[in-house]
Write a structure and sequence with these properties.
CATH topology: TIM Barrel
Number of domains: 1
Number of helices: 6
CATH superfamily: Glycosidases
CATH class: Alpha Beta
Shape: globular
Radius of gyration: 15 Å
Order of helices and strands: EHEEHEHEHEHEEEH
Distance between the termini: 29 Å
Number of strands: 9
CATH architecture: Alpha-Beta Barrel
Helix content: 25-40%
Strand order of the largest sheet: 1-2-4-5-6-7-8-9
């Protein structure tokens, strides 16, 4: 298994050299939230993740009450301004909040967001979510997307896989002092899930 971390501006300054030196092979950084929100540390994190030769991932925090196409565009523009996508880079949708909407509307939002990302860059995003959130039906129709499951209470590599998935790709198994993840495969397997220029 490959070891990784995921970060946002909550961590302020991340010591990427130390993480790379300790065996971290991949990382995700929050890029955007909703239709206008930006992570103030994303540009720096995106650059330094690449400089330290990590498999680079960017994620968007979903706000299902707003337009999914607009949010997808905002996310991709944010990544582009930070240096854009290179071969093997990963994209993910952080789907944790229903914003007061019923599950069918949350799932419809997520499917439309993912279709827009696929249409624009030819990449099937990972879905980052929790078991309880998925079990409510908020992830219906997303089973063909790789699952990045947040389950810090489970042993590393042993999360419960919620419907509609049958297997997990990434397990977020800890969140102190930084979110820690494992990928079920090799570096080559991981980059296969990423961006490949058309």
């Amino acid at each position: 298994m490959l070891h990784g971390i995921d970060v946002s501006d909550w961590q302020e300054t991340v010591d990427w050299a130390a993480h790379a030196g300790s065996g971290v092979a991949f990382a995700f950084a929050r890029a955007s939230e909703g239709a206008t929100g930006l992570d103030t540390s994303f540009d720096r994190n995106w650059r330094l993740m690449r400089e330290h030769r990590l498999v680079c991932g960017a994620y968007h925090v979903a706000r299902p009450q707003d337009d999914p196409v607009e949010q997808a565009g905002h996310f991709l523009r944010t990544v582009e301004r930070a240096g854009g996508l290179h071969e093997g880079d990963l994209l993910a949708l952080d789907l944790e909040s229903a914003d007061g909407l019923p599950p069918e509307r949350v799932a419809r939002f997520a499917r439309r967001w993912c279709r827009q990302i696929d249409k624009q860059v030819g990449l099937r995003p990972l879905i980052h979510t929790f078991q309880w959130f998925a079990d409510q039906g908020n992830c219906a129709g997303l089973g063909d997307h790789p699952l990045w499951i947040a389950a810090p209470g489970k042993a590393m590599g042993e999360p419960v896989v919620p419907r509609p998935w049958r297997e997990w790709a990434i397990h977020q198994y800890a969140n102190v002092p930084v979110d820690r993840d494992v990928f079920h495969g090799s570096r080559q397997d991981l980059t296969r899930l990423g961006y490949h220029p058309r």
